[in-house]
Amino acid sequence: CVLCGRTDDCPEKYGEKRTYVEYNLTVHYYCLLMSSGIWQRGEEDEGVDGFLITDIEKEVKRAAKLKCNICKRKGASIGCVAPKCKRSYHFPCGLQRECIFQFMEDFSSYCWEHRPVQEFMDKEPRGASQCTICLDLVEHLPVYTVLKSPCCKNAWFHRECLQYQALSAGIFFFRCTVCNNKDKFQKEMLRMGIHIPEKDASWELEENAYQDLLHCYQHCDVKRCLCKKGRDYNEPDSKWEIKRCQYCGSRGTHLACSSMKSWEQNWECVECRSIFAKSGKYSKRKRHALATSETTDGTTCLLEEPPPKSPRQSSGSPRSFLLQSPKIMCQNLSPCSHLEQPASNRVTMSLSPVMSNRNWSLRHKHLRQQRREVCNILKELKVQVKTKTTRLNINAENIWSSALKGFRQRIFSPTNTIEVNFSNCKNRSKTNASAASKHHFFQVLMLHLQNSSLFEGSSGKNLSLDFQAVKENLYFEAGKMIAVSLVHGGPPPGFFSKTLFNCLVYGPENVKPALEDVADVDVAQTIKMIKYADSLSSLQSTLQDCCEFLTGAGCLRPVTALCDKNMLVNDILIYHVIKRITLPLESFRQGLKTLGVLEKMQMHPDLFSSILCHKPERLSVETVYNLFTIHSSSDVNKVEGADFWMGYLQDVASGESAVTLEDILLFVTGSCYIPSVGFDPEPTIKFLHIRYPIGNRLLNCLELPITKTYQQFKNKMELTIRNTLRVERE
């Protein structure tokens, strides 16, 4: 190298070593960047990355007069920028002497005496912890070789580990490995001399790097396969669909080969069944519980579309009305769940019809008011969204992996307007497809997240512990997707448990979990046995049986009195529901910070719980009627059609029509739900002298025909809406 005089070729330390035969020139890239007397005066393709050859030759002559304060040889091209400091040195010598080189702005260099240092609080512990990159111990000392995260209190790294991580991840993916913070973390690391190259991550540049993740196991492994087309044949939605083992996912069976009547049934392979049988934990109860709660051992394939937890119900199904009955509502609102009460104490509570209906009405009126206020808050956040668009190409057969790829692409920005293009959808008009596709994408994405292995529980979901998901940073992506969905017109998630919501808003240290937050049936059963032990001897016997579990949870302690069980139960709940998922929770919180959503949640917790912890109510005549504003150009007093519109909505709600209220909303806006942020523009109605109704999704405007009779109006509505939606679905 003409600047440092060394022949070493070590790109990680000195940058790429480049040789230009025509100029008789060899130089390390970092030596050139850090030299004090040279600037990039050319374009990127001129000279050496913008450094002109003539300027390099002048810098070599200037450096030849300067002696290195470290090795005492000539050619020291780098000087300390501290005032009155006259030290000069070669780049490799500076590294050895622990100088700091800042790869930003003016590319300043600081000698060993004037280099910037990190501030350490006197109260900070001076012990040791794991470097989260190499997993070796790193001592908490204010030395050159150790760096502390600016965004996490207990995150410490080896300087060398961080430098290798930065070179691999590049500027787009280099971030804190604990909390996922990017801006604050990168700013501090650049100040402390970590070089973050402006390039894509190394794993993104590798061809077909993720190809293996796109394949799901599809092979029938039962002893006698009944399928005539072979063990590898798989036909979705039929008896020849392949179901994978719910535990390991690496064995499969055709539904018919294992006498399974539907996809909803769970199946485990012989190997997993034998393992559970030997451990003594295999029971029918466990098998039934897993129908409503996914396994959390990290083996579930996150790139496949998981089955829903229960059969899909139409909005007008009997089950939907059942959920609104006073008796069931009272059970849902009961402070103690069936898991928490002993069998002898379980009583079905019911109120008088008048009281229950009144409570139901007041509760939902309050929720509607809260959701209107949330809508206004989200509209404030939506101001950040620019007109510049980002297109997401989504494979309808694999929503999760294509969504993940889209959100992780370098050009994706949550402040850009999002357009969604489904790769297997054809023959749609560009304008209408854009609105409908985006609404449908967010709806399916939220459903996938709800049923994925990132969450556990039946109705109110908590975060699960999936090590593979932690490694792939999927909890952060899930939080980011939910935040983007809320601001960009997606549906309210509605599946958070109160415990998860409180952890996000108030911090996990201020939350007390309950027994219903425990999704694992075996753990719940253990806690119940401890909680309802009626004597000291039975309590001690129970603790002896679950000694291994308590040791792993860090809750094993001597019990001398029966009242000690309450504190023990509380400790187990805090460990299993909160402490166990500390990393996923922090990562999920960082994702929710996207577009300022988490900050608004913490400012207005009561309002946001209405959309995050409660399912959206079914569309009603009143909701749909109030959603639309009759356009001022329509003379409502003279147009009898306004009454026809109200009458038609009542017929649809009562089941006297072939379409649903959701179909009407989809026809007009491209969405079958009301987004949390509302519609933009707000839906309107026009009464015009036209033959058939028109749904203008660009303006969210429903143009209705003026007819002489209600029957004519109804027939035209039915025909147009049914045919339009049928063509779109095909």
UniProtKB/TrEMBL annotation:
Domain of life according to the entry: Eukaryota
Protein name per its UniProtKB record: G2E3 ligase
Gene responsible for this protein: G2e3
PROSITE patterns in the cross-refs: EPHD
Keyword Transferase on entry: yes
The entry's keywords: Ligase, Metal-binding, Nucleus, Transferase, Ubl conjugation pathway, Zinc, Zinc-finger
InterPro entries membership: EPHD, HECT_dom, Hect_E3_ubiquitin_ligase, PHD-type_Zinc_Finger, PHD_PHF7/G2E3-like, PHF7/G2E3_ePHD, Znf_FYVE_PHD, Znf_PHD
Stretches assigned to coiled coil: none
UniProt entry tagged with the keyword Cell inner membrane: no
MF (Gene Ontology): ligase activity; ubiquitin-protein transferase activity; zinc ion binding
Domain spans labelled PHD-type: 1-115
